[in-house]
Design goal:
The complex is a heterodimer of chains A (about 120) and B (about 200).
Chain A: H1 2-29, E1 35-41, E2 44-46, E3 49-52, E4 57-62, E5 71-72, E6 77-78, E7 88-92, E8 97-100, E9 108-113
Parallel strand pairs in A: 1-4, 3-9
Antiparallel strand pairs in A: 1-2, 4-7, 5-6, 5-8, 8-9
Chain B: H1 2-5, H2 13-22, H3 28-37, H4 41-45, H5 56-80, H6 84-110, H7 119-135, H8 140-169, H9 173-200
Classes of the chains: A alpha+beta (about 120), B mainly alpha (about 200).
Chain lengths: ~120, ~200
């Protein structure tokens, strides 16, 4: 019984350490994951072409005064909600896709997945 | 018609400069307003007055008024049009101009700029009421063409006056930055309504 009690703090510590590690990785600090940043500015996605690997993380940030959104062109699926000025949207790369703004269709971009 | 009258303003510059010197100072604000509105081809042809005549409070009033006008016109379009392209365009106008309006009002509050309820704003309101009244008498394709033709002329004129008058005339850096940042939106709107205009012809 005494032995069990003395072990518990260590178990708690290990558990907390494990959770911390998990959170750390979930926040994208895994060095194997590349992060890509796209700025929405002056009605353009900058850069408009991203080359990424599956699992990479892309973040769009809307710097325009007017709202924009991210819609996959192939099936018109809304990937993001409407992004107001200053809002960001994060997406984990799966496969190659063309995308556009759901509110201003001339705004287009592409994510090319590398082998 | 209005669209045709709003094109090719560059060739008039020299004669308008001569005209400008003959215009009584009291009339210049009205000419600026006409330029913004593009509701009257004669006013649109008149060159804008010197920049110094626009205070930041004047500019704030113009920005707020111009956005409200386009929102109201778009709301009429949503109520009266059945053309999906026109409806989509009107929705975009409401979304975007509300965002610009919100930014402009927020900045005006931050800068403690009270948009001046002056001759410009009064004329702006009156001319927009006339346009709205006209739109409310039209239906079907006639409505769609009138709305879109006006949007094309309106956005051309607004872009022109922002570039040539409001940005150079703004004293406050944040106001100047806001005006600069809305230009791409207005250019995109112009491209959008010009495309619809071609399809309606």
């Amino acid at each position: 019984m005494i032995a069990e009690r003395s072990v518990r703090p260590w178990l708690v510590c290990m558990l907390l350490f494990g959770l911390t590690q998990h959170t750390f990785e979930a926040e994208g600090h895994d060095p194997a994951v590349n992060r890509h940043h796209i700025t929405i500015s002056s009605f353009e996605f900058r850069p408009s072409t991203i080359r990424a690997r599956p699992g990479d993380i892309i973040t769009w940030r809307n710097e325009d005064v007017v709202p924009h959104s991210i819609v996959r062109s192939e099936d018109a699926k809304n990937l993001s909600v409407v992004l107001a000025h200053g809002d960001t949207f994060t997406y984990i790369v799966g496969s190659t896709m063309n995308y556009e703004c759901g509110l201003h269709s001339p705004m287009k971009g592409v994510v090319i997945v590398l082998p | 018609m209005l669209n045709t009258l709003c094109t090719s303003t560059g060739s008039r510059t020299s004669s308008l400069n001569q005209l400008r010197s003959q215009i009584p100072d009291l009339l210049k604000p009205t000419l600026i307003l006409g330029f913004v509105l593009a509701l009257n081809a004669c006013n649109l042809n008149a060159s804008p007055a010197p920049q110094a005549e626009l205070s930041d409070a004047n500019i704030a009033a113009i920005v707020v008024g111009a956005n409200k006008i386009d929102i109201t016109a778009a709301e009429i379009a949503l109520a009266r049009s059945s053309n999906k392209d026109v409806i989509q365009f009107a929705r975009t106008m409401i979304t975007d101009h509300k965002a610009v309006l919100s930014s402009a009002v927020g900045l005006a509050n931050k800068l403690e700029l009270t948009p001046v309820d002056n001759e410009l704003v009064a004329s702006l309101a009156e001319q927009s009421r006339n346009h709205e009244a006209k739109l409310k008498t039209l239906t079907g394709e006639e409505f769609d063409r009138a709305y879109i033709d006006h949007e094309v002329a309106y956005h051309r004129a607004v872009i022109d006056v922002i570039e040539s008058q409001l940005i150079p005339g703004a004293n406050n850096a944040e106001l100047k930055s806001l005006l600069t940042s809305v230009l791409p939106a207005f250019r995109a709107h112009l491209g959008h309504c010009e495309q619809i205009q071609r399809e309606l012809q």
